[in-house]
From TrEMBL:
Transmembrane segments: none annotated. This is Leucine-rich repeat-containing protein 14B. Residues 131-226 are annotated as: Disordered. Residues 131-140 have a biased composition (Basic residues). Belongs to the PRAME family. LRRC14 subfamily. Residues 141-177, 200-226 have a biased composition (Basic and acidic residues). InterPro entries: LRR_dom_sf (IPR032675), LRRC14/PRAME (IPR050694). It comes from the Eukaryota. It is found in: Cytoplasm. Residues 178-196 have a biased composition (Polar residues).
Length: 564
């Protein structure tokens, strides 16, 4: 990557913090962004804090989607940035009103010492609480400035509306006088006509005023909840938007931060919760602002069918919710109980209220034979559907192949659902229906043998837009892998292929049809060259001019999102 001259100069400027007092006061506003990026990239936390404390713009965005090879911001820089935000509340030079940290978190312990999602959530909560205590008196200065700006905008808008009304009233009055002068020979008709004109004029003015009042009421919010949020926002100086990760250890802290009114207010884009009870999740959802929440990810929480049915109505109150992910939440419909059909009905009704849902992920919920009941109630077709470890039945695959979601699917994950001769026709029909939209497909751990894969290859080859394909932990021989790669080179959009280790690479004693768990645990034969398989497969790519395809058997480090 070639750096611009501005970037190179910015790195030199922020290198020596001792000189910041001499150049920061003269720095143009247009260069603050370049200086902040340089401070983050070179890990200069003191420079980060001083720049944020004087931030000259209304909005500051840090994070977002990172480029390949780009690391997340350093932990010290993030902490210094949050401290700069608090200090900026009492600094008249700071104009910050929105701090967007969505996507800024990295993997705990990764390169560059990034701040993970849980640590970031705790740090944000601490910042909100400290800001309320430390800036009670001085915060009124910036709040009053913001209030004065809002009042000035409203005053100007009211003057413009009044001017337009007067202009319209004068124009209609002049038109009425002109018509009156032209029809002097018919006085009665003129008087009648004039009175109608005045009446129409007054009706037009009243209608205009009513429309203005109605528009103002719509802006203020149609629900009591929105009105309450707007009332609480009067004290807010800076809105902090981020992805939040909450578990049992951090629930109290984030609960206090969300329920506290003060100069800083937390807003959530994606919420991830782990090992939290249904009542605690409900309280958390009730505290979040209604607008702006795009996704909810619930993991390792013992929801049960009744608990999920209780949460779905709460989730429906978020109008922008597009993603719902449930991982290992203790839903098992294999256990028959008297109220099972009633519970399924409640789940179906709850999902039907999620009007904007486009991404649904259900992992290890054990729902054999119930896919139609759940997915058919969704009002909009899904774009991302993840159903790993769901014990799907042939009836589930048959429904999925002809559902209203199939033609819009961009990503499909049915890993660890066993496929056989009975389900293969449904899978082929599913791939045929989704061939125009499907970009990412995972069939890992599905029990695909050489014979089953051979029957499935024509359907896979028909997915011309497929970018990534995962087939790990399937019992394939070296011959089956060669057929797979020969098909992959004919797929123009494919960029990533996760293949399984061939059966020949394992130590002796492996069963004839091993399960995915056996393939995962069984040791590889150390006497063989570990690069022999990859060299043969990559030779096929080179011979066909497809070096743009990335082949890997590394299941743990595989990431389909690396494909642009």
């Amino acid at each position: 990557m070639v750096l611009s001259l501005v970037s190179l100069c910015a790195k030199e400027v922020v290198r020596d913090h001792s000189s910041s007092h001499s150049w920061l006061r003269w720095m143009p506003k247009d260069l603050y962004r370049a200086l902040l990026e340089a401070a983050f990239s070179t890990c200069r936390p003191l420079a980060v804090g001083e720049l944020v404390q004087r931030w000259p713009e209304l909005t500051l965005r840090v994070g977002g989607r990172r480029k390949p090879g780009q690391t997340a911001p350093n932990r010290l820089c993030i902490q210094s940035m949050l401290l700069g935000v608090v200090r900026g509340l009492t600094d008249h030079r700071c104009a910050l009103e929105v701090l967007d940290l969505c996507g800024v978190q990295g993997d705990e312990g990764g390169m560059g010492d990034p701040m993970g999602g849980w640590s970031l959530t705790v740090a944000l909560s601490t910042m909100v609480l400290k800001a309320r205590v430390r800036t009670r008196r001085p915060q009124r200065t910036r709040r009053e400035q913001k209030k004065e700006r809002d009042q000035e905008r409203k005053r100007i808008s009211a003057l413009e509306r009044e001017r337009d009304l007067k202009r319209e009233r004068g124009q209609k009055k002049r038109d009425g006088e002109l018509n009156s002068n032209e029809s002097t020979n018919v006085g009665e008709r003129t008087e009648s006509s004039g009175s109608v004109s005045e009446e129409d004029l007054s009706k037009g003015v009243r209608r205009r005023m009513e429309m203005e009042r109605k528009r103002e009421r719509t802006v203020l919010g149609s629900s009591e909840r929105e009105a309450e949020e707007k009332e609480m926002d009067r004290d807010v100086v800076v809105h902090v938007r981020a992805d939040l990760f909450v578990n049992g250890r951090s629930w109290e802290r984030i609960h206090s931060a969300l329920s506290t009114s003060g100069p800083l207010k937390l807003q959530c884009r994606y919420l991830r919760v782990e090992e939290i009870s249904v009542p605690s999740i409900s309280i958390l959802l009730d505290l979040l602002p209604r607008r702006g929440l795009l996704g909810v990810d619930i993991r390792y929480s013992s929801l049960g069918v009744a608990g999920l049915a209780e949460l779905l109505p709460l989730l429906s109150t978020f109008p922008a919710l597009k993603s719902l992910r449930l991982h290992y939440c203790n839903l098992d419909f294999r256990r028959v109980h008297p109220s099972q059909s009633e519970a399924l009905g409640e789940l179906s009704q709850g999902l039907a209220r999620l009007q904007e849902l486009r991404h649904l992920s259900l992992t290890a919920l054990r729902l054999p034979g119930q896919l139609r009941v759940l997915l058919s109630s969704l009002p909009q077709p899904l774009e991302i559907l993840e159903l790993p470890y769901l014990s799907l039945s042939p009836a589930d695959f048959a429904y999925l192949s002809c559902s209203h979601h199939t033609s819009t699917l961009q990503q499909l994950d049915i890993s660890e659902n066993r496929l056989d001769e009975n389900t293969l026709p449904s899978i082929r029909r599913l791939l045929s229906q989704a061939s125009g939209s499907l970009q990412h497909l995972s069939l890992s751990g599905c029990g695909l043998t050489d014979g089953l894969l051979g029957l499935l290859l024509p359907s896979l080859g028909g997915c011309r837009g497929l970018k990534s394909l995962a087939l790990a932990l399937n019992p394939l021989s070296m011959a089956g892998l060669m057929d797979l790669v020969k098909m992959a080179v004919r797929m123009p959009s494919l960029r990533q292929l996760l293949y399984p280790n061939p059966l020949e690479d394992y130590q002796p004693g492996l069963p004839d049809l091993p399960s995915s768990a056996q393939l995962l645990d069984w040791p590889l034969d150390e006497t063989l060259d570990i690069n022999l398989t990859s060299n043969k497969l990559n030779r096929v790519l080179i011979d066909n001019g497809r070096s743009d395809i990335f082949l890997t058997c590394d299941l743990l480090n595989y990431d389909k999102d690396m494909v642009a």
